[in-house]
Each structure stands twice: as structure tokens, then as C-alpha cells.
Amino acid sequence: MSSRRPTRIVGRPFTRVDGAAKVTGQTKFADDLALPRMLHCKLLRAKVAHARILAIDVSKALAAPGVVAVATGRDLPVPFGILPVSQDEHALCPDRVRYVGDPVAAIAATSEDAAFDALDLVRVEYEPLPPVGTIEEGLAPAAVPIHDHGDQGNIHKLVAMQFGDVDEGFARADRVYDNTYFYEGNTHLALEQHASVADFGPDGKLTLWSSTQTPHYVHRALAKVLGMPASRIRVIATPNGGGFGGKSDVFNHEIVVAHLSRVTGRPVKICLTREEVFYCHRGRHPTLMRVRTGVKKDGAITALHFQTALDGGGYGSYGVASTYYTGALQTVTYRVPTYRFEGARVFTNKPPCGPKRGHGTPQPRFALEAELDRIACDLGLDPAAIRREHLQPANSLTANYLRVGSMGLGACIDKVVAASGWKKRRGKLPFGRGLGIACSSYLTGAGLPIYWNQMPQSGVQLKVDRGGGVTVFCGSTEIGQGSDTILAAIVAEILGIDPLDIRLVTGDTDLTPVDLGSYSSRVTLMTGNAAIQAAERARELIAGAVAKKLELPPERIGFAEGRVFDVENPEKGMTFPEAAVAGESLHGTLGTVGHYRPPPSAGRYRGAGVGPSPAYSYSAAVVEVEVDPETGIYAVPKIWIAHDVGKCINAALVMGQVEGSVYMGLGEAMMEEMAYRTDANRNVVHKFPSVLEYKSPTTLEMPEVETFLVEDPDPNGPYGAKEVGQGPLLPIPPAVANAVYDAVGVRVDEVPVTPEKVRRALKAKAQGKPARVGPERFPAVPYPEPIHVRTPEEGGDGKAEDAPVTAAGGVR
Amino acid sequence: MARRREKLPPDRSKALVAMTVNGERVEAPFEPHKTMLEVLREDLALTGTKHGCELGECGTCAVLLDGKPVLSCLVLGLECEGRSVETVEGMAGPEGLHPLQKAFADLGAAQCGYCTPGFLLTAKALLEENPRPTLPEIRQALAGNLCRCTGYVKIFEAVELAAAWLRGEAAEPRKESLYGYDFDESGLLPSHPGPVGAVLAAAREAAVDEGGDKPRPYRAKAR
Amino acid sequence: MMRLPRFRYFAPTSVKEALRIRAGEGESAAFVAGGTDLYPNMKRRQQTPKTVIGLSRIPSLARLRAGADGLRIGSAVPLSEIENHRKARRLFPALVHAVSEISTPPLRNMGTLGGNVLLDTRCNYYDQNYEWRQAIDFCMKKDGTVCWVAPGSPKCLAVQSADSVPILIALRARAVLASPGGEREIPLEELYANDGIRYLTKRPDELLTEIRIPPPDGWTASYRKLRRRGAFDFPVLAVGAAVRREGDRVAESRILLGAVASAPVRASRAEAVLAGRPLDGASIREASEAAAVVSRPMDNTDFSFLWRKEMTGQWVGMALGDLSRGG
Questions:
Q1: By three-state DSSP, how is residue C29 classified?
Q2: What is the DSSP string of A217-281?
Q3: Other CB atoms closer than 10 Å to residue B61's CB: what's the count?
Q4: Mean pLDDT to the nearest integer, A740-764
Q5: Nearest CB to A631: which of C128, C137, C314?
């Protein structure tokens, strides 16, 4: 599918097409929209973490000055949820609240002040239920489970799968390691607070502008909950002021304003406060992990047994997928011949967790990379070499049937090892200074759509008009990553025109063909491939017409720099607008389409849908730290990172994604925490839902970053391109922990690696106790008997065996 | 459990306040409890000023008040009577983008673009006071503006680049800023010389002027 | 969008006028200078004054003067002006350093010294939206009865969190308070009470007009702050230290701890340890240990309180170390 010509625009760091609008304040975010007669909406949110709603009295609120309409759960009884298997959310809670912040009523008023004042007039009577605050509590038997769906009690999902003869793998090992890790939850903290404007017109059609990464799924949910034909609903994704996964669910407020606009016949807007954004959450799951690793003396892994327990919060969200993701990608970096994964997600009475940059994989990646560092140090091997020497080969199938295509991790490791002076400096710096390495991989788009169907995951329509104008229509959503610029660059490359001459219509369910949304790092690969197809078709039409006019065979026609010409005799030709006229004269109105569907996955077992991707990106990072052993406070002066992006479509955008990922990974590694407290009344509240107390690194914490872009083109990517938006985050937290170990000889097996923990570990070390801070044990989780899948090496076909094959009953 | 929020007498009369906004004198009627952030966005339709917390904890809403960066979410509209306010909408002039705006766009220092107006104005105040800031000085001056997309790297580089342009130097972005280190350019056709973004402007001129640069042909691969 | 509640706004142009308005409006009126403390509190409905009296148009409060009697800083002088004041930088570098550590650059263009000196005490259970505080059934400091930091506590344990206060007290600063009855000048430390709610001894009808710092007269000072990030964050432990030496020995010292109680804490034992001794490794170590004893941080700020307590000695040691190297 990828275009194989040498490129002129693709790869170059052109100014992004939306750059001028963004630096002049002209980009219209959702909260920047105002319509005549517009009402303002505020949500009344639960003040108790778990309770039955006995009664809601809105009469006083309805009578308050300025209030036009009030809605409660009774008005919107149809449930929704991003995954078909977890349709467990309501626009407004009908009978039960599940976390402090769960919305129970909505007010539309003539001003935001009036709506706010009326919130206090709504009377809600609750019957409190015992709240669940932790993973351990969620695993305990529940008198009143948070949901009536799920695998057992408050356990939402249990997963168990085994690939190959893991027992034999452990038996073959020279050493077996067994360690536990914890990764605290954290949130996206996009600076734009979620906002939506709904306008239900007199024609019976609804338009919703919303800061969403997934307009297509919002469109589906609105149709379902409002009971309206999808054909009468238009969802427009406004440019997102940061997403990072935090705007990829369907949210209560989006449905609520649509409903209120329908009832009042007036446009209705909502913009959440920062506190409410913390309650929307869908961020990183707090995850406990136990890792057992069998290795040979040279560091080769013989068996890996990974157990995870995720704190899911109050609703399903993407949680089933998140659970699988904590086990899916351990196999694509280093060779893991036999693998067992057991995962569990529990419901707790906290805002729901979901997909944040790296979705479900930064937690296990932290554990695996910290584990490898331990193993290397224990075996007396170089932590960089232990990775470099046991890479999963390119063009291979992993034990869990993920198809690895291009694989540039070796080159990435080489780059950061050389640039950081690793061989001369690691383990040799003065006490208090250290270097740590870690690697990672991430998907370039999930192989399967969220709801099962045979249709393309991405579509592009392209219009060429007789003035030479080219318009690209695509459902993709600009969240700052540069998706519009990618489309423009690819179409401009193929048609030989300026990217800034292309008009882009994106993220509009009325005007654009479906693209599933800006999640799972799918956009460049999928929209890129669709755009190539559409643009190549347009090029073919125009080339045919120009060839006819110039009396040449079509293969002689070239497109570059705004001209269409004879490649053997470049002076002979015409401008692109003239060529467009020739094309339209010959073929009639010029319009083409393109689409993309990922290749089928190799795995056929239950759960095989999570993990497959058209291509995997790879990253390696070296982090340098300076630790003050007296306090535990540490600084990160420099990070070296190399990322195998396959091929840059726009090098400057790739750089931005790498640096931004490093930043966010460093925030998670050092300070970011979605922390809760359980108060004396057994109410579970967010510890401090504010930008001030949710610590996000400032300009003063950001280290120098030396970036290397490695291009190992993947045959599935457009021009060979793979993802870059998420992968480079993953190696940072483990590299920080590993660097702290190199600096002061203690292991912090928890993210974030805070000064308190470093200090605590140093004190333990001084007292002769294990020089470590981290979870002491992994809880007892009732994982089921795993499904057994023979690996490709064992001659497996990707399907689960009918009966378990282990002799000793597994390795638990 | 619910304690009533204290209710205040609704005083809905508006104040008429005269101030200078982006060099233009305006008289705006608004409710006295409104912050400058709300006045700009809701009463003057200048939505370029964004907001991320409204409590002074993120820097997103920064504007210049009498030339100094302040947080518009914590300035009362009334307190701006007779004073001069500059927002992002006032940065570009008839000659085009302010050098900071151009540098931010060229380098990708604006990704989602939401924190960008606050950064631009804070950086503008810095460069007016200190035309040749060091990197630590840039970090300090911008320490009150949070960005979640860029990791600040491109923002620092853009401020340095714009500072050079403002000093009249013919600076260009470093190659490593745009491609990283050791980048292999062999897969790319030679680019025109000149700053980023100018490549196709040159190409366009060439296309219009038949006597200009010859397009570099390439052969269409048979499909 | 978080919005302010409605209020009446006055912008007097003299202290006299401000005091007259205050007298007329009574207890429901609040003075505001920079607004960086009051307005967030109002948006969160921690404070809901019916009248707000702006001080930004009173020239006398915006005056910053250095003379033979030291430094006089009007209460409405913006923090950034102190940072950039040449004489202040020369005479009181530790104060300027402390001021430059307050929040962020744009905030320091708005916030004033008076505002920082009078900064409301802070607490993780208090500095929250109305809705959040409703979820914990409010706290003693506003609308509730219990102090959630230590539910048995008879008093509120919110934390003194102003960067400028420990160093100003170490520098022997005095506060000038004006009221309809006249003016009084008190040592700054007497302005504070160790109670998170009634943390000031200032009467509500009094207006802080000026901070006066005597000339250095041989004193040198240092300020050290503990916080998570290099900007935005309030101190969760702060040390303001000043010494006057005769020869190489400490004649007098003043060591103040911030952010470990509802009022700044004077580490008198530590001061006694230093008296008559040179500032060297041994005396600094002993003084740091003595200071750590009186540091009793509670679990209501960022970082674990046990670690903050443990760090007290370190931080006092760093501040005294600065002074041993010449301040």
C-alpha cells in the first residue's frame, strides 16, 4: 500500500497546516463557540462514593431565576459505554452513584452563574452503600457489588492465557526471578477542559460540537441514548486542546447537553471545571504486578509469567481492553518463548480509569524493564547488552501470535548507548549519579475495531476542483498530534502540490467518511494509507488526462512543485490547476476515495483481538539522574531517546511527539499521582483535584533531551511510517528507576519514584534490610485456569487447545 | 449533610468600563464580578485567551496588562479600567505574524495550541525586557505556563529563534531540532534552501514563472 | 468555568477612604490587593465577602522605599517589583530570593507582599471546591466542625504557607496596621497565631499598610524552601534564618520554620545552640537537630509529613550552611 517513490514533502519538517491558526488564537476549541440564545449547563455531581439514589427533587431548582430546564437520570434511561461489553454508564445516574463526581442531575440556564446557583437547590436523597477504595477491597467478597455485570463480585474482568509450555520454560531456566511492582494511577491533564455545545435545530437534526478524540463513537452513543436515527445527528470534533486518551470515551456531559438542547429547542453549552475533568478521568489504571521470569545465564528469557491486578474505578470504560493490554505487548521486544499472562480488573468507587497514552502497557513495561535491569545486574551482564542480544526478530510471530514486521529496536539501543557514553559511564559514575536504560514498543493502531465489523477503519474522500483546489475529507480528529498535517503532506506529495494549498475537512460525521478516532496510535498509519489510495486514484485520473493532452503514455507523467509534466522533458507540461481542468474535462467531476483495513491477526484464541497491530514502533531511552542520598531528592539532567518510527511523514511533528512523550513519561515517573483518600465517614474522595496539587512538570523540571529518529520502514505503514505518539513515553519510568539504582543502589519498584521512596529505600539499605521500596506482596486473585495456546515454534495454529496441556497444573 | 451555599443579593447591573485592548480603546459593559478572562472571551469575543483552571495554577490564561504578563482569571475586569490589555489576537500586525508566532508555528512549539497564547505573551514580555535570554532565563520566565504536549523543548527553541530574529539575525532552526541527531536524509529528495516552510513557496514561484527552477522529475512507478 | 460569586466592588484611592468603606460595610467586606489568594478562595466559595475593597489604586500602599531606616514596603507592592528593586536586592538578598520563589512569574506580577504576609492558611481539606468540601462534610475552617487532618484536634491545623513570612521575621520586620482609630506598628511575628482559622492577630477592621525592615546592621540571612516543583508550589517546609556575628562567633540568630504549623515557628533552642559559637559543621548540625524537634508538620500538604519532618534538619542545615559561607 505504501508509495515507494523517493519523497519531496513526506519526511520533511514542514510547518503544520494548522500552525498559523494556533499561534494567532484563531483555532476554535469547543468552549470558544457561542450561538445565539445559547443556554449554559452545569451538572450536579454525587458527593458520596457509593449510594442508592432514593429520591431527587428538582422543583426548587426549576423555579430558580434563569433556569430553563432540569434533567435527571429518569430522562435518559438508556445505558452506554465505549465497549459493547460494558454498556454500564448513564448520562445521569438513574438509581445508583458509583464515585464522588458521578453526575445525577443537569441544569440548563441562561447563564453559567444561574445554573451554578441552582445546583444547590436540587435535593438528592441517598442510601449510602459501603464503598470500595482499593484493589484489595475490590477482590474481597462484596455484599453489594458496584455493578451487576462482571466476572465475580467486584471483579470486572479476569483473564488467563498461556502460550507454550511455561513449566518447561521455567525448568529450563538457570535462574528464576519473582518480583512485585506497582504503578500508581495518573491522569491526562490536558489543559483544555472538556466542553460541548449541542444545537437541536427546528429541522429535527442535532449538531454536537465536542472536544472529543472519537466523534464516531460519540455519534453512535448519541443515537442509542437519545433514540434518534444516526442520520439526524452530526458530531463535530473540535480541535482538542490536548487529548492523551482523556477524550476518547463518550462522556455524560456530551449526551446531557444534546438532550437539554432537544428539550429546550435552544443551543446548550457545557464546559467542565478542572475538578470535573478529574472526575471524568479515564486515565492510567493503578496496577499491581507480579513478574516471574526464567532466564539462562546469558540473559535469554525461557519463560515469563505476568500477573496484573488493575484498579478500574467505577465503570467499565475501555477496561476490558486495558486489562488485556497489561499482558499483550511483553512479547514484541525481547524473545519470550513461553508466556503466561493473568490479569484482573476490579471495580472501585473512584472515577473510571481508561486509556491514557500507552493504554495499559506502561505499567507492565515498567515492571518488565525494571525486572530486566535486576536480572542483568544479578547475572553480571550489561543491561543494554542483555536487551540488545535477545531481541524479537523482525518479520516474526511472537509466542502470543503478534506479527512483528519492521523492528528497529537494535538500532535504537545502539544510538542511545553510544550517545550517552553508556559503556564508559554506567556503573562508574560517582555515588549519587547514575544512568538507566529501558526499551519499549507500541502498537500502530489496534488491529480490530471496538465493535466488530467488516468495514474500513479509516476512510478518505478527495475532491479536486477546476481551480486546482484539493479538499481532503476524513473523519480523523486533530488533537494536537498533527493528523491534519499528515493528510495534507501525503496528498501533497502524491499530487505534487503545496500542503498549504490543501483544504482539510476532518472530524465531522456529516461531512467526512468514518475514521475511528485518535486513539491507539492508529491515525497516521490508517488515514495515511487511506489518503494514499485516494490521492493515487486522483493522480491516475489526472495523469491520464494530461497524458492524452500531451500525447504521451501515462507513465511519463510526473507531479511535482505545482506542475504536471513529462518526466523525460520537464519543460513540457502544465500547472496543476490546468491539469485539474484537463482531468475534469475528460472524466467529469473529480472525486476519489480511499480506505484502510488492517491485516487480519494471526491469533485465533479468545483475547487475541488485543495486541495485534499492522506495525510496532520501538523506543530505547537512557536517563541520567543525580540523587541526593540525604534527602532522596533527585534531578534528571538529561535523557537520550531513540525511536523507530518506520518513516517520518513530517520529521518536526515526529520530534514533537517524541519530546512530548518523554515529558509525560517523566511526569509519571517522578511526580504525577491520581491519589485518593478514604475519610472517616468511609467516603472515597480524590485527594486534591486541582492543577496545583496534581503535580505536572514545569519548564524547570524538563531535562535536555537528545532525540534520534530511527527509520526502519514497515511494509504496512504509509511510506513505511509507524506510530510515535505513545511509544516513547513507555521507557521513561523504568529508565528513571533503573538510573536511581545505578546512582545509589536501591530499587524503587513503584511509580512514581518519589524522593520519599528513594530516601526510605536508602534507609532500609543502611539498616541492612532489602534496599527496596515497593509492594510487599501480590494479592490472591481468583484467576481461572488459563487457556492454552501452542506457540508458533511449537507448531501451534493460533487457536487455544481444547484441554489444558500442563502436567503440573500450571505454574501458579 | 448539604449546607446551603451563602446566597448573595443578585446585583445584575453592569459596569461600563473603558480600557485599551490590543491597542484599541474599547468600552465594555459587563457584570462587576467578572474576571478579565471572562470579559475578553464573553463580552469582547476575544476567545484566543484560553483557560485551564481559573485559579491561577496553570498559566493558560496569561495576557499582558500594561505590558506585563498576568493571569486574566484572577484579574477583575473592573481593575483594568484605564489600563492596556494585550491578548494573542493583538500580536500579529499588518506585516504578518510576530516572530514568536512564526517560530512557534515553524518548530511545532504549538501542538494542540491551547497553552500557546499564554506562552506567546509571556515570551513576548520576556524578549521585550531581555532580547538575548539564556536558556535558564527562558525556563524561569516561562515557569508559570504549563504545557502538556511539547515537553517545552520546542518552546524553548522557538523563543531562542524568535529572539534571534528580533535582534535582526538571520537565524534558522537547528537541523537537530527538526530531525533529531544522526538523521539519514538519503530517502528524501534534495530540498530547496531556506527556512522551513519556504520550500514550496519557492516551488510555487517556479511553477508560475516558467523560467524558474526546473521541477526535479521522478518516475511514476507502474501500479 | 470557575467564576466569582457576586459582590460589590470599591476602589478607594486613599487608606482613609478604604478604612471608611470597610467601617461602613462591616464584617462582610474584604480588602483585596493582587487577588491571587482571595479570588481563588472566592471561586471555591471558601470566602464569600459581600463587598470587596480593591487597594490597587491607593498610591501610598504601592510605595517601596529604601533609606537609612531600612526598607519600607507598601502592602500593595507587587512581588515582582521587590524582585527587581536594586536596593532590596543588595540589602536583603535572602528576602528577594524568597519572594522570587513564590508561585510563578505572572502571579508575582499580580500578588503583593501584603497579600503574601496575610496569606490564608492552607490545607488539603480546605483549599477545595465547594462541591468537594461538601463530600467530606466540610471542615472546621469553613462550614464544618471537624478538623479532618486530626479529627480529635480542638483547633484547625491549616498551614502557614507564605514564603515571605519566615524570612521577614528572621529579618526583624515590623508590620504597620491602620484602623479608623489610628496606626500601630508591631513586630511581624506578633501578627500570627498558631490557629489555622484565627491565624492573624490583626483585627478585621485593620488594614496592613506597610512592612518595615530595619537595616541589616551586620545581619546576614538565608531562605530555603522545600516543594515538589521549581514553580507554582507553596512551601511545604521553609526556613528563614538570620545571624549576626561578632568576629567569627554568632552573637544573635533568628531561625524561623514555615509550613510546619499554622504560624511561623521560631526555633529558639536552635538559636540558643548557636549563641557564642562559630558557624561550623558541629554547631550547624546541633542547631539543625534542635530545630527539627519543633517541626511538627501534619498530613495536609504535598509530600508525606514524616519525610517533611525528617527534612527539617536538612533544610535548617542548608540555610545555616549558606550563612557560614557568607550568606
A1: strand
A2: HHHHHHHHHHT--GGGEEEEEPPPS--TTTT-S--HHHHHHHHHHHHHSS-EEEE--HHHHHHH-
A3: 29
A4: 98
A5: C314
Could you tell me which residues of chain B have a Cβ less than 8 Å from any Cβ in chain C?
1-3, 5-6, 8-11, 31-35, 38, 51, 53-57, 59, 62, 65, 68-71, 73-76, 78-79, 122, 140-145
Instruction: Show the DSSP H helices in chain B as ranges.
Output: 36-38, 99-107, 116-129, 135-141, 153-166, 175-179, 199-208
Distance CA C286, CA A225 (A): 69
| DSSP state letter for A456 | -
Domain with CATH 3.90.1170.50 in chain A: 33-129+191-242+247-280
Cβ-Cβ contacts under 8 Å, B123 against chain C: none
* Cell (9 digits) for A414: 545502539
Query: What are the backbone angles phi and psi of residue B71, rounded to the nearest 5°?
Result: -95, 110
* B74·C40 Cβ contact <8 A: yes
Q: B15-90 has which CATH code?
A: 3.10.20.30
Domain map of chain C by residue range? 1-58, 226-324
- Kindly report the average pLDDT of chain C as a whole number: 97
Cell of residue A789, nine digits:
495456546
User: pLDDT tens digits for A22-54?
Assistant: 999 999 999 999 999 999 999 999 999 999 999
Looking at CATH, the fold of the domain delimited by C1-58 is given as 3.30.43
Interchain contact, B33 vs C2, CB within 8 Å = no
Average pLDDT on B73-97 reads 97
Please give, rounded to a whole number of angstroms, the shortest distance from the CA of B76 to a CA of chain A.
16
CA A302 to chain centre: 30
Query: What is the spatial distance between Cα A268 and Cα A761, in angstroms, rounded to a whole number?
Result: 53
Model confidence pLDDT, tens digit, residues C106-153: 999 999 999 999 999 999 999 999 999 999 999 999 999 999 999 999
What's the rounded Cα separation, in Å, for the pair C17 and C55? 10
| Residue C157: how many other CB atoms lie within 10 Å | 27
A18 Cβ under 8 Å from any chain B Cβ: yes
What angle do helix axes B116-129 and B153-166 make, rounded to 10 degrees?
Answer: 40
Share of chain A above pLDDT 70, in %: 98
User: Is the previous residue joined to A36 through a cis bond, with omega within 30 degrees of 0?
Assistant: no
- Residue B25 neighbours by CB distance under 10 Å: 9
A158-187+283-447+603-773, which class in CATH?
A: alpha beta
Pick the CATH number of C226-324 from 3.30.9.10, 3.40.630.30, 3.30.420.270, 3.30.390.50: 3.30.390.50
Cα dist from A285 to A152, A328, C129, whole Å: 19, 16, 25
Complex-level ipTM: 0.97
- Could you say which of 3.40.50.720, 3.60.21.10, 3.30.40.10, 1.10.150.120 is the CATH number of the domain covering B99-177? 1.10.150.120
**Record: contact B76-C231, CB cut-off 8 A:** no
Strand segments, DSSP code E, in A46-85 are: 51-57, 67-72
Nearest to A504 by CA among A16, A51, A57: A16
**Residue among A13, A562, A700 minimizing CB distance to B179:** A13
Please tell me the distance from the alpha carbon of residue A501 to that of residue A495, in angstroms, as a whole number: 11
Contact A692 B1 (CB under 8 A): no
DSSP per-residue string spanning B26-46: EEEEE-TT-BHHHIIIIIS--
CATH of A19-26+456-596, one of 3.40.50.970, 3.30.365.10, 3.30.200.20, 1.10.10.10: 3.30.365.10
Chains that touch B (3 or more CB pairs under 8 A): A, C
Interface touch A691/B57, C-beta < 8 Å: yes
Q: Check CB contact under 8 Å for B144 and C107.
A: yes
